[in-house]
């Protein structure tokens, strides 16, 4: 007796919903299961949540720009940090990435301004000083308007190599060069650290030797 083939199971959701789940799953920190939960929540709350989310995404998509002064990402140029008159323009914190700006600024302890390098030196990846915003950094300190440069590199081999390179370049300028205290875990990245650790690192920053 020949058995009938098993019926083919239909997909649990439409192609459009599956595409939304796949798109969300590509976001950092979200896997397929978390993405499906997020989509399910959006579906259940579609009357209130979806319009607000779509409006916010559209606004960011239309207005997102890179700050010409520091390299931060915002919906205006200069960004909110650079445009804030209460910020100490004589203190400059150099970071690898925009995520590091946001991580440090969440602690609300550093009242100066930032400079985003756009990466870090890496011989293995072929990333040299000319691939980073090093020239813009030197231009910002060359006019004597900056008193202190805080090198807030990640506590990785590449991050510390970048910090040492920048310290050597900055020695020709009359600025105080400091770096975050290494209560930071080796191999740790700023965006994944808690605010208490970041606060302690900022308070205990010291001159670069």
* Topology as a string of helices (H) and strands (E): HHHEEHEHEHEHEHE
Structural class: alpha/beta
Note the main sheet. 5 strands, mixed
C-alpha end-to-end distance = 84 Å
Radius of gyration, in angstroms, nearest whole number = 23 Å
Shape: elongated
Report the average pLDDT across residues: 87
Q: Looking across the biggest beta sheet, what order are the strands in?
A: 4-3-5-6-7
Number of strands: 7
Count of helix runs: 8
Which bin fits the share of residues in helices?
40-55%
The low-confidence parts are: 6-10
How large is the share of residues in beta strands? 5-15%
Explain the overall architecture.
It is a single chain. The chain is an alpha/beta fold. It contains 8 helices and 7 strands. The chain has helices spanning 15-25, 32-44, 49-63, 80-83, 98-106, 134-142, 157-170, 195-203; strands spanning 65-66, 73-74, 88-95, 112-116, 148-151, 176-179, 206-207. α1 packs across α2 (32-44). Residues 6-10 have low confidence and may be disordered.
């Amino acid at each position: 007796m020949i058995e009938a083939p098993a019926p083919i199971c239909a997909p649990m959701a439409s192609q459009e919903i599956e595409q939304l789940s796949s798109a969300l799953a590509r976001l950092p920190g979200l896997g397929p299961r978390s993405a499906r939960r997020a989509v399910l929540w959006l579906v259940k709350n579609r009357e209130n949540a979806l319009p607000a989310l779509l409006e916010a995404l559209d606004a960011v998509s239309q207005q997102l720009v890179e700050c010409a002064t520091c390299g931060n990402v915002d919906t205006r140029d200069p960004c909110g940090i650079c445009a804030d008159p209460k910020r100490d323009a004589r203190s400059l914190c150099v970071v690898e990435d925009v995520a590091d700006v946001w991580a440090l600024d969440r602690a609300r302890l550093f009242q100066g301004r930032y400079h985003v390098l756009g990466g870090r030196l890496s011989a293995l990846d072929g990333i040299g000083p000319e691939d980073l915003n090093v020239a813009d950094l030197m231009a910002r300190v060359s006019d004597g308007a900056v008193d202190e440069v805080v090198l807030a590199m990640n506590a990785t081999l590449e991050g510390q190599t970048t910090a040492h390179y920048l310290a050597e370049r900055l020695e020709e300028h009359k600025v105080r060069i400091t770096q975050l205290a290494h209560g930071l875990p080796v191999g740790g990245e700023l965006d994944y650290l808690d605010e208490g650790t970041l606060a302690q690192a900022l308070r205990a920053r010291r001159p670069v030797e």
